[in-house]
């Protein structure tokens, strides 16, 4: 039975410093809605973030949060999931943090399939550092550091994730929070690595990929679309520019999650073992050992 939660239970008292109109606001609200619908309380989830505007999201939620160094949230999240498999682990970071500096971890998370949900705030620009082009910026994109336009081809995250072996791949749009929340619900329910590439406009530094630009191009996958069909997913993964599909593009519920294959976890949660050790008076050396690291 799912416990009914109040959306306000996730509210934080921290002052929000995002620019008015930033797509991150919709992502924050959609995540709260998804957790509420699933009955996941604050103490039952962990949000791991990197460095960037959107990576400040854990500060704006009443939830377990951990901010890593640039590009490293995925390995930290994987470690947290291995230490406490019962925890719902969610990664929040931007396109630069995920696909640029953290690109290597992105690839290996796809193939390892840890049971974590990865929400990428893809605004096609480095917003926090004042507007450099990112791995997903379109060719020719003009910024202060690329006045002649970006000369590189953009990375297609959905196509890369599919090729790397991800078992749940979705795309959604910050201009449609209801759709986004529904996708996040399915991603969290999936037993394995779930990528959600969120088209999230940066209203300050990206004046090209605006809400209007996306609305003219995005479309929701048809009701009869089969996300388990890898060939169909591959075709949709390469759609960009004129037509951009939204929804669950690929889903494989048969592949085992990474932690389900770790033999050391067959004996139970490492966290449960630590807590048992902590309460056992015959093994009080745990407390003295812990003191050495404080």
The percent of residues in helical segments reads 25-40%
CATH class of the largest domain: Alpha Beta
Within the largest sheet, what's the order of strands? 2-1-3-4-6-5-8-7
The domain count comes to: 2
CATH architecture heading of the largest domain: 3-Layer(aba) Sandwich
Mean pLDDT: 92
Sheet of most strands: 8 strands, mixed
Uncertain segments: none
Instruction: Compute the CA-based radius of gyration.
Output: 20 Å
Question: What structural class do helix, strand and pairing data support?
Answer: alpha/beta
Distance between the termini: 40 Å
How many strands? 8
Could you give me the name of the CATH homologous superfamily of the largest domain?
Thiamin diphosphate (ThDP)-binding fold, Pyr/PP domains
Order of helices and strands: HEEHEHHEHEHEHEHEHH
Task: Describe the protein.
The structure is a single chain. The chain has ten helices and eight strands. With 294 residues, it is an alpha/beta fold. It starts with 23 loop residues before the first helix and ends with a helix. It has helices spanning 24-38, 73-83, 95-101, 103-112, 157-164, 177-189, 211-215, 230-237, 270-279, 285-291; strands spanning 45-49, 64-67, 88-94, 117-122, 168-173, 194-199, 218-220, 244-251. It folds into two domains: 7-258, 3-Layer(aba) Sandwich (Rossmann fold); 262-294. Helix 8 links the parallel strand 7 and strand 8 (244-251). Helices cover 32% and strands 15% of the residues. The chain has an eight-stranded mixed sheet with strand order 2-1-3-4-6-5-8-7, with helices on both faces.
